[in-house]
Automatic annotation (TrEMBL):
Transmembrane feature ranges: 43-61, 73-90, 106-127, 148-178, 227-249, 270-287, 293-311, 357-382, 388-411, 423-448, 468-486
Family indicated by similarity: Belongs to the NhaD Na(+)/H(+) (TC 2.A.62) antiporter family.
Topology with respect to the bilayer: Multi-pass membrane protein
One GO term of the biological process aspect: sodium ion transport
Protein name: Sodium:proton antiporter NhaD
Intracellular or extracellular location(s): Membrane
Keyword Aminoacyl-tRNA synthetase: no
Every Citrate transporter-like domain range: 59-430
Listed GO MF terms: antiporter activity
Organism: Methylogaea oryzae
UniProt keyword annotations, A-Z: Antiport, Ion transport, Membrane, Signal, Sodium, Sodium transport, Transmembrane, Transmembrane helix, Transport
Signal peptide annotation: 1-28
Annotated GO CC locations: membrane
Length: 491
């Protein structure tokens, strides 16, 4: 009887699972993806171009109207895809074949979304634990000169951006530079510019450091180890403008800081979890061909369990009040530092405006690709124009157009590039954003930070960046020449 009962339950469960899968299987059969259309000269194509131009124009002039850049991009992408689905429903009687096209772009975005979310969650957790504030205090207490701090902050931005999103590194270094450069607006401006260039350069030589490099890695155009070929060109890109700016930085030293760095409980272990996460992500991709997001989510899970442990193991601590080095405020900070933290507050602190901007941008690019515009552009750029020249031109365009969007567009063109051309494109798009303050996420973040904490026209500004653009441009072409010199056989 027991055997019959178990068999009956097994059959019922199997039937239930099969019944749940039937709609999915039927949908998969009915929604074979539509082939890309050639609608460049149709009303639908013209409508998509007009909406795209308007959305980008509003997004790029965010500082003038104070409307976040995500809003026009998300709205624009929705309008274009609504138009595509409506057109196919009217002209072909059904738009079911369009859904897989949209979903393929959505899948690419979902991986980017999760990757950036995990990366910024770790950064927010380390910020909450006081790690970067302690770094600021240590730099202030060491009595380095402003010239030394100029190089230290630049080198830190370069190194950190190889494992943390460059846009986040730019914001972090901007905060540190503001704190240690109080009363020295010229230092703040030059160090801020140096940090932006360094963050873009460091992020270019690693698929973990930038949106455009992540796309190249995600689409398997370059293997993780092949990004190492960009190391020397990226170092050159950072050093050339930094050496030129070095002589304009004052030799004075900032005033000694009496702050005492206090790391919150678990801070060092969070750094260890961060290193473990990125090591697992890289190694699993290199040796197991596992998508990068699997390793990142593994690390996020460990961070969540560790936050739970810190919260559950809280104790009451008290620092000896007779110790002269600490006042009552510092004692309260010390006591608070022993408490746990809520990891979901760190997730909530992610830059959602940037993430939504990329959703809109990637959906718009996917739509233009489906309509045939990217194929036409690819034919012009990579057939009628030399591929090397085209890649340099695309890199220069990234000084005013987001490099992640440009890279996603090129990937949708499917150019038949050898490894050398993918390296060149990755390099020019990564460091081309340094040519203007509005050309990269680090630049925009540092600009916003300076506006909030500096007087008008002081510190890092669009005008200051424009004044030093020739030095940055020299570094741009020097890095390209270095790439050909070091890796000429890859072309």
């Amino acid at each position: 009887m027991k055997t019959t009962s178990r068999r009956s339950k097994t059959l019922q469960l199997s039937a239930l699972i099969f019944a749940c899968l039937l709609p999915v299987l039927g949908f998969a059969q009915e929604t074979a993806a539509a082939t890309p259309a050639d609608l460049k000269y149709s009303f639908l194509g013209y409508f998509a171009i007009v909406v795209t131009v308007m959305a980008y124009a509003i997004a790029m002039t965010e500082d003038l109207h104070q409307l976040s850049k995500a809003k026009p991009m998300v709205l624009g992408s929705a309008l274009i895809w609504f138009a595509i689905f409506t057109y196919y429903s009217i002209e072909h009687g059904s738009a079911k074949t369009i859904a897989p096209i949209f979903q393929s772009n959505l899948t690419a975005y979902a991986e980017l979304f999760l990757f950036i979310t995990v990366s910024m969650t770790f950064l927010n957790a380390m910020t909450e634990r006081g790690i970067f504030d302690a770094l600021r205090i240590v730099l202030s207490n060491r009595q380095y000169s402003y010239r030394q701090l100029f190089w230290i902050t630049g080198a830190l931005a370069f190194v950190l951006s190889t494992v943390i999103s460059s846009l986040t590194v730019g914001l972090l270094m901007g905060y540190i530079i503001l704190e240690i450069g109080k009363g020295q607006p010229r230092f703040v401006g030059l160090a801020g510019l140096n940090a932006v260039v360094a963050a873009n350069a460091g992020g270019t030589m690693s698929p973990l450091g930038g949106i455009s490099t992540f796309f190249v890695w995600q689409q398997n155009m370059l293997h993780f180890t092949e990004f190492f070929y960009l190391t020397i060109p990226c170092i050159v890109n950072f050093l050339v403008p930094a050496i030129i700016m070095h002589f304009s930085v004052t030799k004075e030293a900032p005033a000694f800081s009496r702050d005492i760095p206090i790391l919150k409980r678990g801070s060092k272990r969070i750094i260890l979890i961060f290193i473990l996460t990125f090591s697992a992500t890289v190694l699993s991709n290199v040796f197991l061909d596992m998508p990068a997001i699997v390793g990142m989510m593994f690390g996020l899970a460990i961070l969540q369990f560790f936050a739970y442990y810190l919260t559950k193991s809280e104790k009451t601590y008290r620092l000896a009040t007779e110790h002269e080095a600490y006042d009552e405020h510092e004692i309260q900070i010390y006591i608070a530092s022993k408490k746990g933290f809520d990891v979901f507050k760190c997730i909530a602190g992610v830059d959602w405006d940037t993430l939504m901007f990329f959703y809109g941008a990637m959906m718009i690019v996917g739509a233009l690709s489906f309509l045939g515009y990217l194929d036409a552009m690819a034919h012009y750029l990579f057939t009628e124009i030399n591929a090397t020249l085209a890649n340099v031109m695309i890199g220069l365009a990234s000084s005013s157009i987001d490099n992640g969007t440009l890279m996603f567009a090129v990937l949708n063109m499917h150019p038949p590039f050898p490894v050398g051309q993918w390296l060149l494109l990755t390099l020019t798009l990564g460091v081309g954003g340094s040519l203007l303050a509005i050309g990269s996420a680090p630049g925009l973040h540092v600009l916003g930070l300076m506006k909030a904490h500096m007087k008008e026209g002081e510190g890092y500004t669009f005008t200051l960046h424009l004044r030093w653009m020739p030095a940055v441009l020299l570094g741009f072409f020097a890095s390209i020449a270095t790439l050909f010199l070091v890796n000429g056989g890859k072309f």
